[in-house]
Amino acid sequence: MPIKADQFRGSLERGLASIYLFGGPEPLLVQECRDQLFDAAKEQGFMERDIVHADARYDWDALGDTGGTGSLFSSRKIIDLRLPGGKPGQKGAKVLANWAESADPDTMLVISCEQWDASARKSKWATSIDRSGVRVDIWPVGPRELPAWIERRMKQRGLAPDRGAVLQLARRLEGNLLAAQQEIDKLVLLKGEGAVTENDILEAVADSARFDAFLLVERMFSGKLAASLRVVNGLQRMGVAVQLLIGALYSELRTLAAYKQAIENGRSESDAFRKLNIWRSRQPLFKAAAARLDYDTLLDAFSALSLIDRQGKGRAEGNPWHGIDRLVSRLCG
Fold first, then answer.
1. How far is CA 306 from CA 20, 27, 290, in A?
2. Any idea what DSSP says for residue 14?
């Protein structure tokens, strides 16, 4: 039977499985579950990890080759399989189901799906993993649950927020759990443990509000070139890690592409917004950007982000911030 994200740590205490499946649209919660698993697996001798991105063109025959490639020292191995759409196709489903039935104890398969709808949850390959390994269904944190989620996270870090502080943070972040956790971590650094008031929240976020990564997305989706470039310049001057900005842009552009696809497939706007967890206040922004940006532009943007990521890690020539400027100029049109 699938378990929830908050039950996962307890399952690790009962021992490791050979196959895991994390499905849900909350990147922070998926990543936290993966990190908990990888820490536990390292203690059990899983010293190698291969990250595999299974897109529509992925050769599923290669998965068996990846699992069968041992190292010189024969350490135990993790295959970190990223399946964003949650649907491996007929061949991929067969490969995953077969893997679940004949798992190798020295090779752990970890599957992560960012889109996880009812059809994916009921699929034969997912239920086979549920029987043979551990499956974690990660549900979105809705607007009503968000304040309680934020309060719980703040208390875990030693903060004691009042109601106004919690609600102010929830209003500012509009359901973005990753940004919420980052703001909480920043509060701990700025204030230390103890009481937190609404004024504390306003003071803490005031300096970064104009120059945070998600503000850049809002300006960029609105086609405001000058304002977008000012935000990029502010982020660079503040010493923000370019990888943080890349992650935010990639996430928002992927959601935008999924929204365009859903509308073209005949889904209603309200259904598409609900499925993709796009909050009401941001819906006009996505509608305008979807109408303005075509698929070729979005594909070019994903390629550009890949190059910028390599530049930021020193694996490609060029200044990543110059690449961000060019990308913003292209997307603002």
1. 27, 19, 21
2. T
Q: The pTM is what?
A: 0.61
Please report the pLDDT score of residue 289 as a whole number: 94
Domain end position, chosen among 104, 137, 170: 137
Cβ contact 257:221 at 8 Å? no
Q: Are residues 197 and 252 in the same domain?
A: no
The number of angstroms, rounded, from the C-alpha of 325 to the middle of its chain's C-alpha atoms is: 23
pLDDT at 115: 87
- Average pLDDT, 10 consecutive residues per value, the chain (333 residues): 92 94 92 94 92 89 67 75 92 93 89 92 94 94 91 95 90 77 85 89 60 78 90 80 85 93 92 86 89 94 94 91 95 89
- Show the DSSP H helices in the chain as ranges: 8-12, 27-43, 61-68, 89-101, 118-121, 124-132, 146-156, 163-173, 177-191, 198-209, 213-221, 225-237, 242-264, 269-275, 283-292, 295-312, 320-332
The pLDDT score that the predictor gives to residue 205 is: 60
- What's the pLDDT at 67? 57
Closest CA to 138 of 101, 177, 172: 177
CATH number assigned to the domain comprising residue 59: 3.40.50.300
Of 86, 113, 137, the position where a domain reaches its end is 137
The answer to whether residues 112 and 85 touch, using CB atoms and an 8 Å cutoff, is no
19: nearest Cα among 93, 81, 92: 81
Side-chain-side CA neighbours of 261 within 13 Å: the count stands at 11
197-201: long-range contacts (C-beta < 8 A, 24 or more apart)?
197/161, 197/162, 197/164, 197/165, 198/162, 198/164, 198/165, 198/167, 198/168, 200/165, 201/164, 201/165, 201/168, 201/169, 201/172
Closest to 92 in 3D by CA, of 57, 119, 67: 57
